[in-house]
Amino acid sequence: MPIYEYRCLACRRVSEFLILSQSDPFEPVCSRCGSTDLERVLSRVRVRLSEETRMERLADPSRWSGLADVDEKDPASMARMMRTMGPHLKEAMGEDYPGEMDEIIEEAMESGDMGMADESSELEE
Fold first, then answer.
1. What are the residue ranges spanned by the domains of the chain?
2. Checking phi first, is residue 79 left (phi over 0); if not, alpha (psi -120 to 50) or beta?
3. With b meaning 16 or more CB within 10 Å and e meaning fewer, what string describes 34-61?
4. How confident is the model at residue 26 (pLDDT cuts 50, 70, 90)?
5. Could you tell me the pTM of the whole model?
């Protein structure tokens, strides 16, 4: 049972439709504006991985060779690591992934500040 994607020519929103039978006539309707003027778009192939496979991939050090030089004391280095791992965290956490995380990472990359408290001031308290 394939899932097809269509782009509404009126509002440009892309919608997904599950096609249960190729023999039944299908007329896509935009879920945002209700238009029937849609064009089919080429979508990426998606493969659903098991939790075990995802965890194995995250644990594989060869997949993270670019992260070998991460300096946890350098905010820019930590931001690069978070940007690299972000999509994997989103997939692993699902709806629990904080939506503002991407914005925080981008702001940190631009400013060079990860928003971490100064450790020396915490130790003095």
1. 3-41, 51-114
2. alpha
3. eeeebeeeeeeeeeeeeeeeeeeeeeee
4. confident
5. 0.39
